[in-house]
Structure formats: structure tokens, C-alpha cells
Amino acid sequence: MITHLTAAVLLFFFVVIVRKYARSLGSYFLELGVSIITGGLLLTEINGTFGYNIILVGIVVTFFGVTKIFKRLKEIAIKDYLTGLYTRYYFFEEWLPREMERQKRKSGKGISFLIIDLDDFKTINDKYSHRIGDKLLKYVASEIIKNIRKTDCAVRFGGDEILVAFPDTDKKTVENIVKRLEKKINFQPSGTPGRIFLWNRDLETR
């Protein structure tokens, strides 16, 4: 009995400690599962079989919660929270090595790279506020995502730098995509005349 009560108390404190982190990751199942296990430990003192069955249910729920948390952590690691673009970590650790291997295996046409740098972005943040700067970044990112293929990879490379990788695409096709993007993107916050950023681009095909 003492062992079960001790385990129940430890699990209770575990729930209290991790609950805010579990919830911030979008999963209530870990907290629920551990709570069920705690209840099951206490119930074993009244009805052993029933208590152990409750513990098994709690373990299943906890496992589901942990799975959801790991999935959410994976999303955080590969997607930029503001723009929805991929992160540098994902690009260098997963996408690029996998694509280079695929290129070798399939004798692909190579990868074209487009680098987009938003000019005077710090000035925009200072003059119009970071909220406008964030809105600008999200707008640019959404237009890029809409105008590239699913096989392409758009990466938030720096604060105001975006890299887009186009596998198996020739230079002419990438230049056409750039022209289309320049026509699509004309961000104009309320009260500021004209365009507030310029495009710099650097194309390289190999």
C-alpha cells in the first residue's frame, strides 16, 4: 500500500510540474493519462484487478499524449512559427541531404536556388513596428508558398532572408517564377504609400 501511495504522490507532482509544458505543446493527453494512472494506483488498494485495468488505460492514454507531443516538437523543429516556412535545421539536416542523395540516385537535373532578401527590413520594423514587419514576412511567405511546387523547399534562412530550392528545375523556369512573384507581391500597409521593400535575388543552378 505504501509503495502505491508513494507512486501516486510522485505522479501527482509530475503532473503539476509538466502540465504547463504539455499544454503549451497542444496535448492534454499526457496529463490525463498520468492522472488516470495515479487513480488506478489508488484503486488497486480497494480492488486490485480493477485498479490495474485503470492503470493500463492510463498507460495507453499517456502513450498517445507523448506521441502527440513528439509530433508537435517535430513540427516546431522543421517549420518557422511565424511564416510557416521550413527552418534552416530542416533544410540542412533533412531536406538537402535527402535531395542530394535522390539527385545522385536518379541522375537528376540539379537544384536551383533562389535567395530573397527584403531590403531595409530593420527600418520597416523601427518605423512601422514589429507587428507590421511580421505581417510583411507572413505575406511574402504565403505568396511564395502559393507559387512554388510541392517538391520545392522554401526556407526562412535568416531574419529577412528566404531561400527557395527548386529540384530538377532549369534556370529559365526559376526566372519565370521570380517574375510571377514580383507581380504578386506588392505589400502596402495602411498609411504608407508605395512599396516598402525591394527584391534582391541571386540565382544559381548546378
Describe this structure in words.
With 206 residues, the protein is an alpha+beta fold. The protein contains 7 helices and 4 strands; from the N terminus they run ααααβααββαβ. It has helices spanning 2-24, 29-43, 48-78, 88-106, 121-128, 130-146, 171-184, and strands at 111-118, 153-156, 161-167, 199-205. The chain has a 4-stranded antiparallel β-sheet with strand order 2-3-1-4, with helices on both faces. Helix 1 (2-24) packs antiparallel against helix 2 and helix 2 (29-43) runs antiparallel to helix 3.
Largest sheet: 4 strands, antiparallel
Structural class, by secondary structure, is alpha+beta
Level of helix content? 55-70%
Mean pLDDT: 77
Number of helices: 7
How many DSSP E strands? 4
- Distance from first to last alpha carbon: 69 Å
Tell me, briefly, the overall form.
Answer: elongated
In percent, how much strand structure appears in the residues? 5-15%
- What letter string, H or E per element, gives the SSE order? HHHHEHHEEHE
Q: Report the radius of gyration as a whole number of Å.
A: 25 Å
Low-confidence runs: 187-206
Cross-sheet strand order for the largest sheet: 2-3-1-4
